[in-house]
Amino acid sequence: MLPAAARLTKSQDFRLVVRRGRRAGRPRLVVHVLRPDQARGPGPNRTGAALPEADANTAPTRKSDVSTRVGFVVSKAVGTAVVRHRVARRLRHLMRDRLPALPAGTLVVVRALPPAAGASSRELGADLDAGLRKLRILDPDVPATGSR
C-alpha cells in the first residue's frame, strides 16, 4: 500500500499532471509525469506563447516539493470491477517499490489500458520501467525493482 503522503487524490491534481506533464505510452499502460519545476512556472504552449502562472485551478493542492505522489486511472474499458481492482493493486505495489528512485516532488499518473487486464505483474513492471525511463525519470542503469 502506498502511504497517504504518496497518493494523488484530487481530480485537479490528476488533471494538472495529464495536461501539463509529459507522457510515455507502452502496450499496457500510459505514464504521465510532471516534475516540480514544470508545475510551478510558466512554460511555452503549442503556439509558443508563455502559459499564465499556475492559478488556483491548476496549482497542486499540496506542496509538490514535499514528496513524490502517484495516482492511478483504471477505466471500465480494462474490465470488470474485480479485474480493475487487481490491476490497480498490482500497479500500486510496483510504484511503491519505485518511489525512492524518483525525484522528490514529482507527480505521476499511471493510466492502465485494456491489455493490462491480462498482464502479469512482471509485464506491468517492465512497461512501467520503460515508461519512466523514456521520460528520463528513472535512471537507465538502475535495475527494475518489484518485478516478479
Automatic annotation (TrEMBL):
UniProt KW keywords: Endonuclease, Hydrolase, Nuclease, RNA-binding, tRNA processing
Keyword Nucleus in annotation: no
Location of region: Disordered: 36-63
Enzyme kind, highest EC tier: hydrolase
Catalyzed reactions: Endonucleolytic cleavage of RNA, removing 5'-extranucleotides from tRNA precursor
EC numbers on record: 3.1.26.5
HAMAP family noted in UniProt: RNase_P
Self-association and partners: Consists of a catalytic RNA component (M1 or rnpB) and a protein subunit.
Protein name: Ribonuclease P protein component
Gene (name only): rnpA
